[in-house]
Specification:
Layout (H helix, E strand, L loop, with lengths): L1 H6 L3 E4 L8 E4 L6 H17 L5 H8 L4 H13 L3 E3 L7 E3 L5 E3 L7
Antiparallel strand pairs: 1-2, 2-5, 3-4
Helix pairs in contact: 2-4, 3-4
Length: 110
Amino acid sequence: MIAAVSRLKPRAYRIPGIRGSPTLVLDAPSLTYRQGQVLVFVAAYIAAHEYPPTMREIGEYLGTTLTNAVKHHLLALRRKGWLTVDPATARGLRLVRPLQWVQVEEKSPC
């Protein structure tokens, strides 16, 4: 029960590929942490390159060579209404809605 409750809290992420990026909270309480990582990576990649990443690029970001694991996360994001996937198109990922971010104030070490 405790794990289920903690899963519903908003989670903090850093924007991938940007060293020193601010900590942001993604308002997506239905996602697991790993699904949130995939969603944030896809959104950041599309913003930087104007086209979506491949499954292998997502896998590299997650530190896995198993494209089946990436496919599982993408399927979960599609079922939860965050992504659409066009299987007939290379790089067929599309965000259904823009991500809602809240910036978190970083605590300075004392």
